Fold this sequence. Notes:
Blueprint: H1 3-60, E1 70-71, H2 74-80, E2 84-86, E3 88-92, E4 95-104, E5 109-113, E6 118-123, E7 131-132, E8 137-142, H3 144-162, H4 168-187, H5 192-201, E9 207-211, E10 216-221, E11 228-229, E12 234-239, E13 243-251, E14 263-268, E15 275-288, E16 293-301, E17 312-318, E18 323-329, E19 334-335, E20 340-345, E21 350-355, E22 357-361, E23 365-370, E24 377-379, H6 383-398, H7 409-422
Antiparallel strand pairs: 1-21, 2-24, 3-18, 4-13, 4-17, 5-12, 6-8, 6-11, 7-10, 8-9, 10-12, 13-16, 14-15, 14-17, 15-16, 18-23, 19-20, 20-21, 22-23
Helix pairs in contact: 1-7, 3-4
Amino acid sequence: MSTDTQDSVATGRRARALRWSAYAAVPLAALVIVYFATRGSGAGSQAGASAKDGATSTASGAAASVAPPVMISAADARRIGVTFAVASVVPLGREIRTVGQVTFDETRVRTVSLKIDGWVEQLFVNFDGQAVAAGAPLFAIYSPMLVAAQEELLLAKRLESDVSGGAADARANATSLLSSARRRLSYWDIPPADIARIERSGQVQRTLIMRSLVSGFVVEKNVQQGQRVMAGEPLYRIADLSLVWVEGEVFERDLSSVRLGQTVTVQVDALAGRDLTGRITYLYPTLNAETRTLRIRVALVNPGQRLKPGMYATLVWTGAGVVSALSVPRSAVVSTGQRNLVFVKKPDGMLEPRLVDVGSSTDDRVEIRRGLSPGDTVVASATFLIDAESNLGSALGGMGNMPGMDIGAPKAASKVVPKAAARLEMPGMDMPAPKKPE
């Protein structure tokens, strides 16, 4: 093949490649132009719709619906359990609730320690949580000081016996010495019965038994058998749980509704379904600067030790100043944390969602400060189902404003495409259809 023929074939291939590239670029450019054209149009329509909605919302005010009204038949309402209630003005006590914790009655906690040094020879109370009664043995102790005190006691006892027939002064001195020896042992917490037993036996006891002075439960044990103990060292902590405290925190804004002697209902998870009643016995003198709360104390009788220190409890009481206020059942208000709404039944049967401002509440009712009028009928049960139906209708209705969801969109697009195609009529871009290769 000649050189001219080869150049001609190469030129033809380059021309065909250029034409195919141009044909591929045309639809791509058209798509880009249509995209930006429709985007601008959608943004404009959305801006117009937003302005219109804003004007409507401003005109309707706080009573404007947050979602489309819902129509539900009487049969469907019965099927899903919808009931109605009337907003009315009734006496509404301000209920105050706070979380508390069961603790020991600190006036009924006793620390057991010795007033002398010694060695623990035997333990009778061996573990935390063990119940003890007043007068029950705790441990046996050997102490040189106790041995010396017993010897003095027996010596004074013999002296009193020896001078029983002597002069009055001698008898008085002997009696004084005996009383002093007894008193020393009693000051060291040796029970009178044990002292009398030493006098009767006339023998010094190597170890003496230390006994509990109170009844309760061992909540702390710090002694082991064979241990050397020092005077004043805490060995046991014994708590009487027949009476306990429940301490809670009250916000600063609620302090006007708290007073000493006020009756409080105490709810404990461990006693589900059974409310306990106590009284506020103490208000702490200082406020927590970080949480803005004040600690209060409620005293509770604890028969059977059912309340355990460390349990959580809920304190509930009615504040002072019971007033009449517009209210609805608590179940009528749907709260999301950002808004509160109720569904108002209109004369035509439509259920209209309406924003409301809520105030104080009780176990079964909540105050409505704004958004309702006395006599309005609201949905009192199955409110969340009605709210879901209203939100679904709002979502489906709003899809018409989304780009591509407008029914007239294909017609609009047909008007845009010719204009976009006209912009492609650039010099040199009008090319004949490619010929088949020879």
